[in-house]
Amino acid sequence: MDTPPPGNPPRRPLPLLTRAGARPVNQPLPSGAGHAPGGADLAELMQQVARGDKQSFSALYDALAPLVHGIVVRVVRDRAQSEEVAQEVMIDLWRQAARYRPDTGSVTTWAATIAHRRAVDRVRSAQAAADREHTQAAREHQTAFDEVAEQVETRLESEQVRRCLRGLTELQRQAVDLAYYRGLTYREVAEALRTPLPTIKTRMRDGLIRLRDCMGVTT
Fold first, then answer.
1. Which segments constitute the RNA polymerase sigma-70 region domain (predicted)?
2. CA dist., res. 72 & res. 122, Å (int)
């Protein structure tokens, strides 16, 4: 069973990628990229890295980091996140060096595959987090609607609703109108009113409580 090299890889900050003389990260590796600086073969370096040779990993890092970062940034787009993912890929290369098999492809191909997979995983994770936030906002919106707005619509006359709405602050009234009469989510209300989301949630909660009390709605 393959075992990762002992210890941690030498830390190589990614600003190294843009130092003077470095190849721009959005360009492909030049011909002869299968060799590291000094003429060492990348496959040989990988074997040394698999044995825990940190000096060989430093040479491997210098050879592959621009390629890795270029792939990641094209997928992730965000440069700060791209640097994080690229560092994770280089750590993967250190830890998984013993798994590399020359007969399955070049070191650069192997590194590129890991980089692309990591980048796609980061994008999917970010999208999943955004979807969860949207779902939670919709759930909160629906809960508040069920507790107050639905009872208002079924039990009270429109004139009383208008009178109670006039008792709200301008921001509360606008937020309630956008959420319950136009169907916007909390986040969409915040964007429409150019107001921070936490402020919108607080104002709407307070506004709904005032409406409930004004109209004598019990929950």
1. 60-127
2. 10
CA–CA separation, 173 vs 207, rounded Å?
7
Please count the residues of the chain. Answer: 219
- 48 band by pLDDT with thresholds 50, 70 and 90: very high
- The residues spanned by each domain of the chain are 14-126, 156-215
Give residue 106's pLDDT: 92
Q: Which residues contact 154 (CB under 8 A, 6 or more apart)?
A: none
Q: How much is the pLDDT for 213?
A: 79
pTM for the model stands at 0.47
Assign a CATH topology to domain 14-126. Rna Polymerase Sigma Factor; Chain: A (1.10.1740)
Strand, helix or coil for residue 8: coil
How far apart, in whole angstroms, are the C-alpha atoms of residue 186 and residue 209?
17
CATH of domain 156-215: 1.10.10.10
Instruction: Tell whether the model's pLDDT for residue 144 goes beyond 50.
Output: yes
